[in-house]
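note to self: dont lose this again. the chain is below, predicted strucutre after it. 129 aa total, dont forget to put it in the shared folder this time
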Amino acid sequence: MPKFSTKSTKILNSCDEDLIAIFNEAIRYIDFSVIEGHRTVKRQKQLKAAGLSKTMSSKHLQMPSKAIDIAPYPINFDDRERIVYFAGIIKGIAFSKGIPLTWGGDWNNDTEVYDNQFDDLLHFELNYE
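---
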């Protein structure tokens, strides 16, 4: 059975309890790495300048973080199909727990994965709006 590394556990613990609940359940079924939870304003500015983020009002800046970046393990950033499959598992777990979760591959939550203006396929965020 997969389990979190020490690093992934530390990053996950910087996140909201609902994100922790989703991903503690998910690790029981599929192996993945937690890449980023809470981030600093400095880091957010770097990501925005590099074109990897579109906003300075990221949910990653909240404490605890309302956003998380994760990747199926072993990590292959070029394997879109695997990442989309993985996202479906995560969205299903969130749904089963009644936790509204938005994935960066479907910002408008319409289940269409090719209509985004900006893909952030490793990003998930709580959506209580």
